[in-house]
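--- STAGE predict ---
source: upstream dedup step, 1 unique chain passed
mode: sequence only
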Amino acid sequence: MKLEHKTIINLISDYLEKNPEQRFSQALFNLNINQFENQINPEEKEFLLRDIYNDSDEDVVERVKSSIE
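--- STAGE serialize ---
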């Protein structure tokens, strides 16, 4: 497993430990792993999800860390 994968998993795990009332899918949004296409006004795009397929692991790690801070 890549270091970035372990980091992402550990960050999610730590977040869920501190926020047990949240569903897993909520955590993915709250940590900015999954994102709406229009993050400021998601309703303008009818809640379309942004395609994160090509996001690098490093980008995901940075988004998660930024969300936690």
